[in-house]
Structures are given as structure tokens and as C-alpha cells.
Specification:
By secondary structure, the chain is mainly beta. The chain is elongated. It has strands spanning 2-7, 11-32, 45-69, 72-88, 100-117, 122-138, 151-153, 159-161, 173-184.
């Protein structure tokens, strides 16, 4: 991350980025040697292939702040994030072939804010925020037979295997928020 002035006492920037990856192996959970075989209805653990849960997140953010006049300051923030929970839902009760991949491409946040001190006691503020989330859920292996149904085996500690037990819905979420405020300071204060 870094930032600084672009134009002295007029325009500033700040930018940052990050990449985060986590992978957690699940004790006692292994892939199913019968996975993908529609003729097999049993779970047979493959001890050479341990089940895991993984997350990868990447993000980049940028902000500009402009002192438009002595009494008017504008700010713009743009944030892009890409996340992949691949695979997601793998657990002690969900075999790897029953898990899904869930990704957010992109998660976007745009924020515009304005401040203006009218006097040494009155501050005006306004802002706008727009957030878009586009989650996608899919079966990780495109060769999985879509006709296979999930099995939950109570004799194996409620382990679900063979297929994903639900439906895959993909919905884009959009949020818009407006705000405005007038602040009156009763004591002495410099904005």
C-alpha cells in the first residue's frame, strides 16, 4: 500500500492490494474412490487424498481525495475484490465430491463522499455507496454426472457423499446507500 499528494494541497491518492490464501485439511476426511461412478452407492475412503477447504482472496483498493475549494472536499474510493472458496463446504460431514466452488467475481465497492465546513461550528457531509456482489456457485468437477443424487450415511457420522445435496443458485446482489449529515459543534473545534 502507499499514497501521497498528486498536486500539493489539492489532490491526494492512496492505493493498496492484498492476496490471501488459506488451505485447511480436514482430519479424517478423504476423497471417495467411488466418486463419479453412478453404479456405486457407497463411500470408500482414499487415504492418499485428504479432503480440504480452501479460500483465495485478492483485492485492490484506490482512493482519491480532492480539495476542490477551501470549504469543499471530495473523496472517491474504488475497491475490487475477487474471492474463491474452492472447494467450499468440505467438512467432516461433507465429502469432497459433494462440495461446491463458490466465487465472487467481482465484489465491487464504489464510495463518493463530500464534506464542507460552513462555519467553524457547522459541518455538512454527504455520501454515496454502491456495492455489487456476484457470487457464482458451481460443481468443481465438470465431469460429474448431473443425474447423481447425494447420499447422507448416518452410519458414517452423517457423511454426505456422491453429489452436492442442494441446488446451485447464482444471484447478483446490488446495494446502494445514500447519506447526509449536518453537524453542529457547541465547543471550539477546527474542521
Amino acid at each position: 500500500s502507499g499514497g501521497g499528494p498528486i498536486m500539493r494541497d489539492k489532490l491526494w491518492f492512496f492505493a493498496s492490494g492484498r492476496v490471501q490464501t488459506n488451505q485447511n485439511y480436514i482430519a479424517g476426511l478423504f476423497s471417495n474412490t467411488n466418486a463419479g461412478d453412478p453404479t456405486k452407492w457407497t463411500y470408500a475412503a482414499n487415504p492418499a487424498d485428504q479432503g480440504f477447504f480452501a479460500i483465495t482472496q485478492k483485492g485492490i483498493d484506490g482512493r482519491l481525495t480532492w480539495q476542490a475549494s477551501q470549504r469543499n472536499k471530495l473523496g472517491l474510493l474504488w475497491s475490487e475484490q475477487v474471492s474463491c472458496y474452492c472447494p467450499e463446504l468440505t467438512s467432516a460431514t461433507m465429502a469432497p465430491e459433494s462440495a461446491i466452488d463458490r466465487s465472487f467475481r467481482p465484489n465491487r465497492t464504489v464510495l463518493v463522499d463530500w464534506t464542507s465546513p460552513l462555519t467553524s461550528r457547522v459541518l455538512l457531509e454527504a455520501g454515496f455507496l454502491s456495492r455489487t456482489e456476484a457470487p457464482t456457485r458451481r460443481v468443481p468437477d465438470p465431469d460429474v454426472n448431473p443425474l447423481m443424487v447425494a447420499v447422507t450415511d448416518h452410519g458414517l457420522g452423517n457423511l454426505t457423499y456422491r453429489a452436492f445435496p442442494g441446488e446451485l443458485r447464482n444471484v447478483t446482489l446490488k446495494h446502494t446507500i445514500y447519506r447526509a449529515a449536518v453537524s453542529y459543534v457547541t465547543g471550539s473545534h477546527a474542521f
